[in-house]
Design brief:
This protein is mainly alpha-helical. It has 2 domains: 101 residues, Rossmann fold (3-Layer(aba) Sandwich), CATH 3.40.50; 82 residues. Helix content is 49%, strand content 12%. The protein contains 6 helices and 6 strands, in the order H-E-H-E-H-E-E-E-E-H-H-H. The chain has a 3-stranded parallel sheet with strand order 1-2-6, sandwiched between helices. Strands 3-4-5 form a 3-stranded antiparallel sheet. Helix 4 crosses helix 5. It is extended, with a radius of gyration of 25 Å. The mean pLDDT is 86. GO terms for molecular function: dynein intermediate chain binding; dynein light intermediate chain binding. InterPro entries: AAA_9 (IPR035706), DHC (IPR026983), P-loop_NTPase (IPR027417).
Length: 195
């Protein structure tokens, strides 16, 4: 699903190791990832998590002679700090036990009908009207940049307003307010042009 694709896309550059329970003994592959610091993805996880994964989920790393180590099953290996562990499931509505949520971060990648409609529309427009979709993406980026600029201006003003002294006599405050007002008007005009 989407979660699996996202993890694989983000881990590709760091040599993501993809492991499936169907392969049998997953601990050997996971131990290699722990040792080398490669991220590991365990696909197609059921509602019952294999107890052998407990040390990974709890990050039961211990030091032996100053070296971080982790034991999985009967095997202990050196623990590389860059190691990351992901699990995905194909189950549409998995029901995991509450104690699992204390060990992992659960993210639901389900999509709402409205979200699906937006994604499909974007794909159709990208296919049929490439230039229009590219323009939309540029405007989204510009909108985010404008919002970041407005936020920075607000932060500057708040910082200046928190200074001691008479605000009406503080030239820096007056200049910042004038600059912010003109910048906000300029951004509003650009946003109106986009619409």
């Amino acid at each position: 699903g989407q979660a699996n694709a996202w993890v694989q896309a983000n881990g590709r550059e760091r040599n993501l190791m993809v492991v499936s329970p169907a392969e049998g003994d997953v601990s050997r592959s996971l131990l290699q990832a722990v040792r080398t610091g490669c991220p590991a993805l365990l696909e197609d996880v059921d509602e019952e998590i294999d107890p052998i994964l407990e040390p990974l989920l709890l990050r039961q790393v211990f030091r032996d002679g100053g070296v971080p180590r982790l034991t999985l099953g009967e095997t202990t290996v050196e623990y590389h700090d860059a190691f990351q562990f992901y699990m995905t499931t194909k189950l549409p509505r998995p029901h995991y036990p509450p104690e699992l949520s204390t060990k992992v971060c659960l993210i639901h990648f389900g999509i709402t009908p409205g979200g699906l409609q937006d994604q499909l529309l974007s794909q159709v427009v990208a296919f049929e009207e490439r230039e229009l979709e590219a323009k939309k993406q540029r405007y989204l980026v510009l909108g985010a940049q404008h919002n970041a600029r407005l936020k920075a201006l607000e932060d500057d003003i708040l910082s200046l307003l928190s200074t001691d002294g008479n605000l009406l006599e503080n030239e820096a405050v007056i200049n910042a307010l004038d600059h912010s007002k003109s910048a906000a008007n300029e951004i509003a005009a650009k946003q109106a042009d986009v619409r």
